Amino acid sequence: MTTATLAITSATPSLPEVWKAELSLQLGQGETLLSAVETDLDSKLRFQRGLIVVTDQRLLSKSSESSEWQSWYFKQGLQMRHHDHAGVGHLELVDANNLLAHWRFTLGQNLLIMRLMDAFNEQLQVRLTGRPVEKPEQNVCPSCKAILEADQEECPVCTKVIHTPPSTWTLFRLWRFARPYKISLIIGFTLMLLGTAAHMIPRYLTKPLTDEVLIPYQSGKVVETSLVALYIGGLLGAAILAWLLSWGKTYILALVSERIGADLRTATYEHLLKLSLEYFGSKRTGDLMSRIGSESDRICVYLSLHLLDFATDVLMFLMTAAFLLQINVKLALVTLLPLPLIAWAIHMVRDRLRTGFEKIDRVWGEVTNVLADTIPGVRVVKAFAQEKREATRFREANKHNLAVNDKLNKVWSLFSPIVSFLTDIGILVVWAFGIWQVAHAEITVGELVAAIAFISNFYGRIDSMSRIVSVTQKSASAAKRIFDILDHVSSVPEPKNPVKITEVKGQIELREVGFRYGNRAVNRNVSLNIQPGEMIGLVGHSGSGKSTLVNLICRFYDVAEGAILLDGVDIRSFAVADYRSHIGLVLQEPFLFFGTIADNIAYGKPHATREEIVAAARAAHAHEFILRLPQGYDSMVGERGQGLSGGERQRISIARALLIDPRILIMDEATASVDSETEKEIQKALDNLVQGRTTIAIAHRLSTLHKADRLVVLDRGEIVEVGNHDDLMTKQGAYFKLYEAQARNAAALAVVGE
């Protein structure tokens, strides 16, 4: 291997050997390789390998389809430009006058491309000025080498993929939900303490019953009836007292645990509603439903049953140990012999159970996800005759769930009998040692019988306490999954000191707005000033960033760059709910809730009168078809609007927006999925809706925006044209091309229709 090849290999260890061999032939004498990146797309966006190289003297490039290398030496005016759109990255090399080269790549290469650009810019400055670039100290993730912000302590890349196993200590975080009920908890645990002591009385009375009643009676001695009655009465009284105390403690603590579970569900759901759309975009509906439903229910059962039993077992264990020490110290010490082995077994199995139950929870989420996908989409499933396919999906998910449970049950099925075996051996050892002590007159028969009664209870409690390991780890896993939601901070945070909105004029200003979905830039440098009462139409190809811009204005997401202002105030300064209450939203696919027509119209204003609801429906041109329904405004709407046509659902959503009388109206493809006749009806309703409001409308059918004051044309996330229809048609730019293309398509469809 040559010296040049060795240098290349050390600088770019992940580069394929073919490229390394070619590079060794291209580098000149004394030329040093600084950075090299493999591109994976060609100019026609086909997957094709290429290479970009930065050395200390120049930039080199080659594609697999060409045998020629291209080369550009560092000079004044040379620069690299980078942008990405719709999942494709673009890298351009330009000088003062020309575009010299253009490379395309998938965003998986984006981080490497950025590093190559850094190397290029640093070496360019060195060549032009003779001075190296002063680089600030960077905070780098030790695992994935991603560059972090100065104030970042955790790597956002790693924290998304690393699953930390649940810890039993997670359960202690439930105290925040238990704190409001601490008086009831104190009463409940006091009753538990007294009840446990009452359960000890019959075992303690075993000693005098044996020594003072049974053995004398067997020996022929006279035993006083009053003494027998006293002991029997003591046993009966202790049983009644223990029952009453146990009932009281169980009832009180069960009530408390149910309220803790209810508060936990409510807090989780309320926090979930506060999270941004970005969070929901990365989660499955079935998984979230499982967390709030079954996981919180599992915690509730743990608190009301298993934790209560565990606390009782611990108290019984400690009291039994105290009584054993009081009866005979040696016998008590022999009783403790199996404990180290049992503790070791619990320790060995705990970690396996902990990680296993979290995996079971995730796999169960897969089962519920299939249900959450299929049941709402059952119409599509049946329309495409995919019942067998969905049944297979569910069967596979259920099979996976079964396999994970079987694997964990192997561990648990071995652990439980081992603990039982060790406790049985412990009792045998105690019997043997106790008989030896009786034979040597160290204890009486009554003391041995009482000790055996306590020891049986002692080992029984150890066995019961060991079994709590399983349910504790299940509950810890459930608590972790719930706290994963509660700990998640919304990417659309509430301001610390929100500005109160008194009166909304409706002026919206976008100042150099930029936004990214992960690594993909969607909007860049968007600046626009919308006057109060003005209607703006957003047009452009699919993927040009129209809907994202609307989502930013609604503050479903926060801008990554720049700012959005309402009446001169940054919208991030307002309370989210206060700000959104002044926005009316009409979507392409209107969502209706299960309930009456009136309830759906009044969703944004629950206390609206029937007169207000009817007035909104009239303005939305929905009153007539509502009256034709069997119960009129009290007719039930199926889930997601089942039973109504698309146009009827859309007009109800328009009535819903009209009822709250918003100052800002946003319409996202409001007439895209209806026929021409229905579109006319909806358009009449929209004409009533937009009057006097600042309106932002998105439409693929450019003809529906003829009443817009201005049209804003977006391309690749940037504004390329602004103006009314006539002005933009005169310019014959991007809007002209869109309009002409739609006109040709409409003409072609008309010919086909004939």
Report on this structure.
- The chain starts with a helix and ends with a helix.
- Helix 7 packs antiparallel against helix 9 (285-327).
- The strands form six sheets. The protein has a six-stranded mixed β-sheet with strand order 15-18-19-12-20-21, sandwiched between helices. Strands 1-2-3-4 form a four-stranded antiparallel β-sheet, sandwiched between helices. A four-stranded antiparallel β-sheet has the order 11-10-13-14, covered by helices on one side.
- The protein is extended, with a radius of gyration of 37 Å.
- The relative contact order is 0.06.
- A hairpin with a 5-residue loop joins strand 1 and strand 2.
- The protein has 23 helices and 21 strands.
- It has 754 residues and is α+β, with helices and mostly antiparallel strands.
- Residues 141-146 and 148-163 have low confidence and may be disordered.
Helices and strands in order:
Layout: H1 3-11, H2 17-26, E1 33-41, E2 47-55, E3 58-63, E4 70-73, E5 79-85, E6 88-94, E7 99-106, H3 110-129, E8 139-140, E9 147-148, H4 156-161, H5 175-178, H6 182-218, H7 225-274, H8 277-281, H9 285-327, H10 329-335, H11 339-374, H12 378-383, H13 387-439, H14 445-486, E10 508-517, E11 520-530, E12 535-539, H15 546-553, E13 561-566, E14 569-570, H16 576-580, E15 583-586, E16 595-596, H17 597-601, H18 610-619, H19 623-627, E17 636-637, H20 646-659, E18 664-668, H21 676-690, E19 694-698, E20 710-715, E21 718-723, H22 725-731, H23 734-753
Parallel strand pairs: 12-19, 12-20, 15-18, 18-19
Antiparallel strand pairs: 1-2, 2-3, 3-4, 5-6, 6-7, 8-9, 10-11, 10-13, 13-14, 16-17, 20-21
Helix pairs in contact: 1-2, 6-7, 6-9, 6-14, 7-9, 7-14, 9-10, 9-11, 9-14, 11-13, 11-14, 13-14, 18-20, 20-21, 22-23
Domain ABC transmembrane type-1: 186-474
GO molecular function, one term: ATP hydrolysis activity
Pfam families: ABC_membrane (PF00664), ABC_tran (PF00005)
